[in-house]
């Protein structure tokens, strides 16, 4: 009989604790999610995915995908073909600076695999409205909407990438300056690495597609304002 009473008491306590802890858990999750969604990095991520997928749907009708997961798949292709030895920023800098003298066999193989990857997603990364959205408009939009200072990495990176866009996506001194702005810790963040991978894709296109010519147009500023 005593054991039955003890079991009943424990059951009541468990129910009481469940009722007490559930609102706390819900509040904690709510605060956590709201805090994450308010960060500039997540705002930038959302903006880029929205921009990319809107245009993918409009031009190809293919399903939505995560641009940053796509970028990591592209990185795997670069790694597999030996174009980069690891995923650190120094390897990307070395690749971009030597992209015009890439080994034909490895370079073409990687390029073809990257083209197959983009076809799989229906992602025409050369389409200006997408390039401009990812590399220019979204960073500028987040800089303005989140009221960031000009020393924030989103603004600094966006400004330098815009300058590279205006110079045909390649100016060695600008590339070196861009990499100086991003430390290794930030480079691990997909939000800051993805634009670099995008620059690699664009420069590999110029390297292997004879129909593409670099366009120099340095008159516009970040955000085209």
Task: Write up what this structure looks like.
By secondary structure, the protein is an all-alpha fold. It has two domains: 38 residues; 185 residues, no CATH class. It is 72% helix and 0% strand. It contains ten helices and no strands. Helix 3 runs antiparallel to helix 5. The radius of gyration is 23 Å and the shape is globular.
In short:
Mean pLDDT is 82; it is low at 20-37.
Q: Indicate the low-confidence ranges by residue numbers.
A: 20-37
Radius of gyration: 23 Å
Determine the number of helices (DSSP H or I, runs of at least 4 residues). 10
Strand content: under 5%
**How many angstroms does the end-to-end distance come to?**
80 Å
Largest sheet: none
General form = globular
Question: What descriptive keywords fit this protein?
Answer:
single chain, 225 residues, mainly alpha, globular
Topology of this protein?
Elements (H helix, E strand, L loop, with lengths): L1 H36 L2 H20 L7 H14 L8 H9 L6 H18 L6 H18 L7 H14 L5 H10 L2 H4 L2 H19 L17
Helix pairs in contact: 2-6, 3-5, 3-10, 4-8, 4-10, 5-10, 6-7, 7-8
């Amino acid at each position: 009989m005593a054991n039955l009473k003890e079991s009943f008491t424990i059951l009541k306590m468990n129910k009481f604790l469940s009722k007490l802890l559930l609102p706390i858990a819900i509040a904690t999750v709510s605060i956590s999610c709201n805090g994450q969604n308010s960060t500039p990095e997540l705002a930038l991520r959302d903006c880029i995915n929205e921009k990319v997928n809107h245009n993918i749907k409009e031009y190809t009708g293919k399903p939505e995908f995560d641009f940053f997961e796509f970028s990591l798949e592209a990185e795997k292709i670069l790694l597999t073909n030996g174009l980069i030895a690891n995923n650190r920023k120094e390897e990307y800098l070395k690749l971009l600076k030597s992209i015009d003298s890439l080994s034909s066999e490895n370079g073409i193989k990687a390029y073809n695999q990257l083209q197959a990857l983009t076809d799989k997603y229906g992602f025409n990364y050369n389409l200006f409205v997408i390039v401009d959205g990812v590399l220019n408009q979204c960073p500028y939009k987040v800089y303005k909407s989140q009221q960031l200072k000009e020393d924030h990495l989103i603004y600094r990176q966006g400004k330098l990438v815009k300058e590279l866009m205006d110079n045909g996506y390649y100016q060695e001194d600008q590339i070196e300056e861009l990499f100086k702005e991003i430390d290794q810790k930030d480079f691990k963040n997909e939000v800051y690495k993805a634009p670099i991978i995008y620059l690699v894709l664009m420069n590999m296109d110029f390297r292997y597609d004879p129909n593409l010519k670099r366009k120099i147009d340095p008159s516009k500023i970040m955000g085209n304002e």
